[in-house]
Amino acid sequence: DGGITQSPKYLFRKEGQNVTLSCEQNLNHDAMYWYRQDPGQGLRLIYYSQIVNDFQKGDIAEGYSVSREKKESFPLTVTSAQKNPTAFYLCASSQITGLNTEAFFGQGTRLTVV
Amino acid sequence: KQEVTQIPAALSVPEGENLVLNCSFTDSAIYNLQWFRQDPGKGLTSLLLIQSSQREQTSGRLNASLDKSSGRSTLYIAASQPGDSATYLCALDTGKLIFGQGTTLQVKP
Fold first, then answer.
1. How far is CA B25 from the centre of its chain?
2. pLDDT at position A100, please?
3. Which residues on A lie below 8 Å from B49 (Cβ)?
4. Which of A83, A104, B40, B98 has the highest local Cβ count within 10 Å?
5. Residues in Cβ contact with B25 at an 8 Å cutoff, skipping those fewer than 6 apart
6. Peptide bond preceding A75 in cis form (omega within 30 of 0)
């Protein structure tokens, strides 16, 4: 099936550890995004990428890092510098040119710091 | 800076009612506007995409409109059902997706 796959669904991290969240898409989309969602709040943009080997900071990039070595993959690393990492993380992808620029989302990863 | 506002934050209606969700934005320089649905603990499901040059889009009981000059979009849901209960989010594509805070809808049987 075509779509976006995020893994794992649930992730627990000890304080001081780095963790990496996976996001893979087989839609041949150019753009990929990472968002953070806290309870009762909207989505805040962490990082986004419109082309392989290039990415831009969003509104809350501090404490996070990304890479875009392949078109299909956009992993997010939550570093120990992120002071409050417990949240729901959502990955999305879209085409950036043409008639259909609809964005699609994965099912999310819930990260909890223990 | 683009700001997106959704009103109301929460809405409760009896089954069968027609309802309107609102989304307003401050900068009309957008590529498109998209409405999503989010069920608790889940990802977002795309409902409708309106390109910048379009005025409205329809899918089943849903109709979304876009008025860039006034910085507004509405999502109209006809004959609401309990299964429509969810949070509805609008997002503007300005080269990156910017979201409103969402409207949480409850449809009572």
1. 12
2. 66
3. 100-102
4. B98
5. B2, B3, B4, B5, B33, B71, B72, B73, B92
6. no
**In the structure, what pLDDT confidence band is assigned to residue A98 with cuts at 50, 70 and 90?**
low
In terms of DSSP bridges, do strands A104-105 and B72-77 run parallel, antiparallel, or are they unpaired? unpaired
Per-residue burial over A42-64, b = 16 or more CB atoms within 10 Å of its CB, e = otherwise: bbbbbbbbbeeeebeebeebeeb
CB atoms near residue B55 (< 10 Å): 11
Name the residue among B34, B51, B95 with its Cβ closest to that of A103.
B34
Average pLDDT per 10 consecutive residues for chain B, totaling 109 residues: 91 96 92 93 94 93 95 97 97 89 96
Angstrom distance (rounded) from CA B46 to CA B34: 7
What is the model's pLDDT at position B92? 92
Q: What is the CA radius of gyration of chain A?
A: 13
Segment A48-76, tens digit of pLDDT: 999 999 999 999 999 999 999 999 999 99
Amino acid sitting at position A36: R
Residue B78 C-alpha, separation from nearest chain A C-alpha, in angstroms: 23
